[in-house]
């Protein structure tokens, strides 16, 4: 009995020791894993800032909006892919339509199959459905919805391609000379390029031109069809005074961000392109804004983004009145140049001098021209006048040719002999008829010459009777 109790105590002690050993091993493993994780995170945080500024895709640009002075610039004019920063220009064109009254915030936009089939991220719009303008704006800003951006483009310009051409033309008007758009969403396209400089220009233009609608870029979340849609811009919650504007990412572009900071009467607009991660991009943006803020001006605004472009500002009212889908920039500039050149004054042309003509000479007529003789009156009949007999009376009598014979004789004869359709045998050549065209043979009897008849005596009948 005692042996069994001792054996049980030994087993219990052994189990306790094993448990303690296992606990110690698990604790040491967890501590080692925690330490390894801390080292990795610390190493990544230390290298992220250096990696983003030293990578081949990195570009950054910081401007004091009140004075237009550049506070930081690195690779600012190097070509980069904008990714979803493209939606800033998409909304700029939409704000133009809202400002001109062609659309309203509660206007319904139709969703096409092409728009619904866009790649994520998106709101999940269905073909044939509608979405109002305000929800489309918020969806493009917060979730960076590609389907909402294409819906905006198609309802304004009819197609995404035509809308992209208008986006490029609008970019040229506000001084974005190195930016070309080929879609409205920012999905990957090797031809769609921009620069950090141009993105800052666009961010400033949105605030200066549309201060009312710019507040949409500060929306952090909204409810759409019962679902809360949250935004991607973490810098607005991490740094005080940041009021926008847009994030973007594709595999070719890296992590992009445009931010606007207002604090202590100062206003900065900055762009960071080509970040290696969203966290490193946000950290680098916060660092640039914090370092540049003391150098910014706190006085009144004295600079305009439209006057700072490398091209002169074109009047926005005149440019918006034209049809953006049909105007070509080169043709518009050429037309403006032609309109400003005054037309040359017409050179007076002297009137032609008529050549001197020869004087008209009138020849006098010596005698009047004879007129047609007047008709004479008929002579009265004289019964005693001698009678004159015509010589034609003594001519031999000839039978006039019959009409049939005349018509046959006058017709041209054929070169070839005429074939007879009759069954009667043809006559021999010796007894053949004479040609119809030959004249009739003269009469054998010679015509005696006509003797002239003596004229009658004009003597009266009474003398002759005697």
UniProtKB/TrEMBL annotation:
Query: What segments bear the compositional bias annotation Low complexity?
Result: 390-429
Gene Ontology molecular functions: serine-type D-Ala-D-Ala carboxypeptidase activity
Q: Which GO terms describe its biological process?
A: cell wall organization; peptidoglycan biosynthetic process; proteolysis; regulation of cell shape
Q: Which residues does UniProt assign to the signal peptide?
A: 1-32
Q: Where is this region: Disordered?
A: 376-466
Residues in domain Peptidase S11 D-alanyl-D-alanine carboxypeptidase A N-terminal? 59-276
Q: What EC number(s) does this enzyme carry?
A: 3.4.-.-
Which Pfam families does the entry link to? Answer: Peptidase_S11
Q: Which domain of life is it from?
A: Bacteria
Catalytic positions?
Answer: 84, 87, 144
The kind of enzyme this is, by top-level EC class, is hydrolase
Alphabetized, the UniProt keywords read: Carboxypeptidase, Cell shape, Cell wall biogenesis/degradation, Hydrolase, Peptidoglycan synthesis, Protease, Signal
Tell me which residues bind substrate. 246
Report the family membership.
Belongs to the peptidase S11 family.
Protein name stated in the entry: D-alanyl-D-alanine carboxypeptidase family protein
Q: Which organism is it from?
A: Methyloraptor flagellatus
């Amino acid at each position: 009995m005692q042996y069994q109790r001792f054996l049980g105590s030994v087993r219990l002690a052994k189990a306790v020791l094993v448990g303690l050993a296992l606990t110690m091993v698990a604790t040491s493993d967890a501590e080692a894993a925690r330490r390894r994780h801390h080292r990795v995170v610390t190493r990544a945080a230390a290298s992220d800032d250096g990696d983003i500024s030293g990578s081949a895709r990195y570009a950054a640009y910081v401007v004091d909006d009140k004075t237009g002075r550049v506070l930081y610039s690195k690779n600012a004019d190097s070509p980069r892919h904008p990714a979803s920063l493209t939606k800033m220009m998409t909304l700029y064109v939409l704000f133009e339509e809202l400002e001109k009254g062609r659309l309203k915030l509660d206007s319904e936009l139709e969703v096409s199959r092409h728009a619904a089939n866009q790649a994520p991220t998106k709101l999940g719009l269905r073909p044939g459905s509608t979405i109002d303008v305000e929800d489309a704006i918020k969806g493009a800003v917060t979730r960076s919805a590609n389907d909402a951006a294409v819906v905006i483009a198609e309802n304004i310009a009819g197609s995404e391609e035509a809308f992209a051409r208008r986006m490029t033309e609008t970019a040229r008007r506000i001084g974005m000379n190195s930016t070309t758009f080929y879609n409205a969403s920012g999905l990957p396209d090797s031809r769609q390029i921009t620069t950090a400089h141009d993105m800052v220009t666009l961010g400033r233009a949105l605030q200066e031109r549309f201060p009312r609608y710019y507040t949409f870029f500060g929306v952090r979340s909204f409810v759409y069809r019962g679902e809360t849609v949250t935004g991607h811009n973490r810098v607005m919650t991490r740094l005080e005074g940041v009021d926008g504007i847009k994030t973007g990412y594709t595999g070719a572009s890296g992590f992009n961000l445009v931010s606007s900071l207002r604090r202590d009467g100062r206003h900065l607009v900055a762009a960071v392109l080509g970040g290696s991660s969203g966290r490193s991009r946000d950290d680098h943006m916060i660092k640039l804004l914090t370092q540049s803020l003391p150098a910014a001006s706190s006085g009144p605004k004295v600079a305009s983004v439209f006057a700072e472009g490398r091209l002169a500002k074109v009047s926005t009212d005149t440019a918006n009145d034209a049809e953006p889908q049909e105007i070509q920039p080169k043709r518009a500039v050429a037309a403006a140049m032609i309109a400003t050149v005054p037309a040359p004054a017409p050179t007076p042309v002297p009137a032609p001098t008529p050549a001197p003509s020869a004087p008209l000479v009138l020849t006098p007529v010596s005698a009047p021209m004879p007129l047609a003789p007047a008709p004479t009156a008929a002579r009265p009949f004289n019964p005693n006048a001698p009678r004159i007999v015509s010589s034609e009376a003594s001519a031999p009598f000839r039978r006039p040719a019959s009409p049939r014979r005349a018509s046959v004789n006058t017709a041209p004869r054929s070169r070839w002999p005429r074939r007879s359709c009759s069954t009667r045998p043809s006559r021999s050549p010796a007894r053949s008829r004479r040609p119809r065209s030959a004249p009739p043979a003269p009469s054998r009897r010679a015509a005696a010459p006509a003797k002239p008849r003596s004229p009658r005596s004009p003597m009266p009948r009474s003398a002759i009777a005697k």
